[in-house]
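[recover] target loaded
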């Protein structure tokens, strides 16, 4: 866990305005959480890899969590998911769709639109759901929903493959003719394994890796072991510098893209 309260803290943050102008963004995992404080469209604070107990008892170091924010969005890390075409999705059939996920007794099922044409049905540890309940489960979304949305709005081409690396999980996203054609996530243990999954995704898309450009966000640098491994197979590998917010100088937008893109999900609904 991080020993530093904040990766970034804006000196102009005004706590007297949190009730009307500030948004709290959260990423909740089985053993930790990250969060960002946003003023309108500007990042004001960012902390990552915090102990889950802090959500219930933030203490002085994380007092920003104690305020009543106008908007809260909690992105929840799933243990499994499946996409369902929106034309086929029916809330009354969630239990039927959930059979594809092999739901365990200690897991909870949630569903919501992922884009204009697909719903995502996902399961998560009950502990993650319980943690999110602190802020209200109706404010929860699939952890990468904002990431999918911001890329969809950026005009992706069929030559682009998007990757988000979150700890030891890589999520892959692909669009063709501006429609979502592929989304999946894999757990990896080494740079070679990451490259293998990326090549596997390219194969599933019937694309040659050397014809695809990778735009990568999250725990990534083009010169780190993961970046160098991917560069051996793909046409180009770059950090994804899309941003839903105004990011201060010195903070790398790609590093917290999935977190800050949750700001696009303020009005999302969970079933």
């Amino acid at each position: 866990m991080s020993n530093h309260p904040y990766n970034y803290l804006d000196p102009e943050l005004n706590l007297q305005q949190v009730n009307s102008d500030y948004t709290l963004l959260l990423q909740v995992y089985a053993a930790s959480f990250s969060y960002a404080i946003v003023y309108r469209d500007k990042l004001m604070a960012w902390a990552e890899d915090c102990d889950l107990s802090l959500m219930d008892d933030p203490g002085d170091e994380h007092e920003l969590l104690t305020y009543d924010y106008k908007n809260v969005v909690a992105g929840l890390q799933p243990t499994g998911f499946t996409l369902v075409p929106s034309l086929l999705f029916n809330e009354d059939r969630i239990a039927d769709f959930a059979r594809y996920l092999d739901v365990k007794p200690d897991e909870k099922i949630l569903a919501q639109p992922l884009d204009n044409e697909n719903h995502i049905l996902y399961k998560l540890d009950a502990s993650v759901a319980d943690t999110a309940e602190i802020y209200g489960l109706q404010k929860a979304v699939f952890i990468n929903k904002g990431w999918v949305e911001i890329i969809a709005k950026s005009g992706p081409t069929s030559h682009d493959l998007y990757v988000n690396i979150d700890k030891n999980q890589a999520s892959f996203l692909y669009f063709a003719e501006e429609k979502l054609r592929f989304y999946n996530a894999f757990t990896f243990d080494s740079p070679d394994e990451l490259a293998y999954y990326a090549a596997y995704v390219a194969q599933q898309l019937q694309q040659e890796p050397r014809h695809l450009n990778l735009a990568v966000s999250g725990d990534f640098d083009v010169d780190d072991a993961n970046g160098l491994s991917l560069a051996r197979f793909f046409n180009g590998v770059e950090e994804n510098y899309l941003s839903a917010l105004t990011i201060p100088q010195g903070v790398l937008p790609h590093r917290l893209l999935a977190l800050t893109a949750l700001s696009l999900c303020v009005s999302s609904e969970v079933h």
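[recover] notes: The longest strand covers residues 42-51.
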